[in-house]
Amino acid sequence: MLEIKNLHVKLEEEDKVILKGVDLTVKAGEVHAIMGPNGSGKSTLSYVLSGRDGYEVTDGSATLDGEELLEMEPEARAAAGLFLAFQYPVEIPGVGNMTFLRTAVNAQRKARGEEEMSAGDFLKVVRAKAKTLKIDADMLKRPVNVGFSGGEKKRNEILQMAMLEPKMCILDETDSGLDVDAMKLVSDGVNALRDAGRAFLVITHYQRLLDHIKPDVVHIMAAGRIIKTGGPELALEVEKNGYADILAEVN
Amino acid sequence: MALPQAKQDVLAARIAGLSLPQGGWAGAARADALARLSAMGLPVKRDEYWRYTDPTSLTTPDTPHAAVFDARDEPPAFDGIDRVRLVFVDGVFDPAQSDDPAAAGVEIDRLAAVADRDIHWAQSLYGVLEARGQNPVQRPLAALNTAFATDGVLIRATGKAAKPVALVYIHRDEGSDAILHHCIKLEAGAEVTILENGPAAARFTKVMEVEVADGARFHHIRTQGRDHERRAATHIFARLGAGALFKSFTLTANGVLTRNDAVIELLGDDAVAHVAGAAVGDGNFHHDDTVFITHAGLRCESRQVFKKVLKNGAVGVFQGKILVKPGAQKTDGYQISQSLLLDEDSQFLAKPELEIYADDVKCSHGSTSGAIDETALFYLRSRGVPERMAQSLMVLAFLAESIAEIEDEAIAEDIRSRLEGWLARHER
Ligand SMILES: Nc1ncnc2c1ncn2[C@@H]1O[C@H](COP(=O)(O)OP(=O)(O)OP(=O)(O)O)[C@@H](O)[C@H]1O
Ligand SMILES: [Mg+2]
């Protein structure tokens, strides 16, 4: 599904190289986790994949079901099925959460040549999905993420994902800021979306999330590269010993 | 103090071609206005109050030409609102296109039609608020209007109006110069909604005097038409009694030059005045909101909410003042003026002022100027919203606080859809 090859990325504005040859393949139906020290480039990878400005790809490629992502506008990537749950969800004063969701759902449908969702159908679906994430009617009415608590913002990301039904979901530290119960809610939300046609790339610092969302593959990223890949046991090792051993082993 | 020669010259040239209507109930008020005007002269570029807006084209004897704009398939503003339409074409009343004024359930006369009468209720209003509003800042164009206005409406309400009164200003003649003067009097407890739409003329000089007596409620929503080349200098003078409500909202899309003055006096206790504006300009657009709110009563509330979206060298101006008189305790004054600059060529000039002579008041003002939030734009796009649509959403969000000042949801929706149309036509 997602195939990243030899991806090199630097900042557009300065001569700072952040990704130094990332190789990563995620197959449909799989859940991959990426762990790694702060500043190793995990969020940068997710931003570059989703098309944020400010980065320059100097080498390599990234494809989604064979389509070159890096050439596409962010909205086209979304319509193609890519979704990023932001590490820091953005507040948009003045734009209602509901309006935002409906605009997004219908824009994607339109881009794919599908029929738009009627206001009534949309309302029904969004209410049901919001309920399972314990997002109340008030949060749906408020401006996007404005005044939401950290955990509410993360749940709102998952609601967007549930509404948009993307095929490639990237979750950037969705577990940070969540209380124990919310972590369970969010994980249930993610697990409910797991199926053979969909894949997940879960960026996290903690094993805790991976107890709920069981990964097939775990990658360790350091200094702009994937330095080690393994099974779920790799996450347990990090949890127990930190990164020192792994970094030493590679060097 | 002798009037500078330059101002005298501008004035002499401007009024040479105008005729001062004589006699009738308004004759004395017109003569007084002319005397005021002669003492002030017309504004020139050097005047402090015209520092950001060049008044030259508003005072020339000849009207600068303005092409008539074809709005194509966009319906006129307020089309879906049940209203009584009074239509002026280049400042001339057109009975054929107008509705029966009686349907509004308020008293409506036309200035030109009742000019010959010896007495009229509007005598207590015509030129009266304008004259009060000449202090502490001179407003010569308003005095010129009182002296030379050719027509206007005189509306008096004693109760709740049955329907909004819609003043429809059509522009057909590329060289038209319209001077209209309206007086609106809400007796105690009355409620009236006035809608205005259209460019009116190549150059439009307008005054609206509004007296809102105790407990009365006045709503005003206007759109100034989409003609790119039209010029307008408008004044609203309002005086509020105890517990009175005054709400005015203006949408300005396009227009080479617009100067909208609002001069509001909260005289009675517990009065509320809100003035708001949403202006969107692309290219040759200069839009000036100048507001002067005087708090004299106790516990009065005023709000100024002005938002401007500017691109391709468009210029926005805001001059807003809150004056709290001695004794006007518990005043609650709020003022915000913001611009969203869609490129680096556009500019916003703001001069917010507070002058407070009471000690127990709450006044805040803020003025900002900024570009579109790129992070939010990316967030929207990452959810599949195309760039232009995302930008429109954010622009509408930026304008939302001003549109929220419109109480009637159907009218607010009309304004929103107009803005959406404008944004769609002016995508980058
Ligand atoms: N726009 C930017 N300007 C300057 N430095 C940047 C920018 N974007 C990323 N960086 C730098 O690139 C490196 C990688 O950042 P990134 O956010 O991708 O790390 P991360 O692995 O997600 O870290 P964390 O675990 O703390 O979230 C960091 O050193 C960061 O400071
Ligand atoms: Mg990160």
Q: Would you kindly provide a written description of the structure presented here, covering whatever features stand out?
A:
- The complex is a heterodimer of chains A (251) and B (428).
- Chain A is α/β, with parallel strands linked by helices.
- Chain A is built from ten helices and twelve strands.
- In chain A, the strands form three sheets. A six-stranded mixed beta sheet of chain A has the order 6-9-10-3-11-12, with helices on both faces.
- In chain B, strand 1 (84-89) and strand 2 (92-93) form a beta hairpin.
- At the A-B interface, helix 2, strand 7 and helix 3 of A face helix 6 and helix 7 of B.
- Bound molecules: adenosine-5'-triphosphate (ATP) and magnesium ion.
- Magnesium ion binds at residues 42-43, 87, 172-173 of chain A.
Tell me what portion of residues of chain B adopts beta-strand conformation: 35-45%
Q: What's the total count of β strands of chain A?
A: 12
Mean pLDDT of chain A: 92
Query: Looking at the structure, what is the overall shape of chain B?
Result: globular
Largest sheet of chain A: 6 strands, mixed
Rg of chain A is: 18 Å
Overall tally of structural domains of chain B:
1
**Rg calc of chain B:** 21 Å
Number of strands of chain B: 19
